[in-house]
Specification:
This protein is α+β, with helices and mostly antiparallel strands. It has 5 helices and 5 strands, in the order ααββββααβα.
Length: 142
């Protein structure tokens, strides 16, 4: 049995949450439903040094999330290590991605157009989830 570091676990749990966020966003937003049927894709997020990750199979708008490394993903987002991956994913900003890319800590492999489409779809799903929460937060602060 493989022992995981705290950074590994934070990365892996974040990836697990991506699948859940997508499913909830798809329920909350017709835009996510529409975008999700535009392409089919096997996407992977992987920490290179630890060789750990998760892959997502999107077919007809349905997303399967599986642990491990896929032997032949169509697109991968490869992070130098799990700590860097968690830092970038939890920041959730284009600036964090751009900085890490310039530093050589993250790269895209495979079909970049589909990969960036997938990342955009996940942003739309996150926005669909966060919008009602933001409205609730504003009401409670008034």
């Amino acid at each position: 049995m493989k022992l995981y570091s705290v950074d590994d676990l934070k990365f892996l749990l974040t990836l697990r949450g991506i699948g859940t966020a997508y499913r909830m966003g798809r329920l909350a937003s017709s835009e996510v439903k529409k975008i999700s049927t535009e392409n089919d894709l096997i996407a992977q997020f992987r920490a290179e040094r630890e060789n750990i990750g998760r892959y997502f199979i999107l077919r007809g708008g349905k997303l399967e999330s599986r642990r491990g490394i896929h032997p032949n993903p169509e697109w991968s987002w490869v992070f130098s290590d799990s700590a860097t991956a968690f830092k970038i994913l939890s920041a959730g900003t284009d600036e964090a991605v751009a900085q890490a890319t310039m530093e050589g800590k993250v790269r895209s492999e495979g079909d970049a157009a589909k990969g960036f489409w997938f990342l955009n779809m996940m942003k739309v799903a996150k926005t669909a989830l966060m919008s009602p929460l933001d409205k609730f937060k504003k009401k409670t602060e008034e």
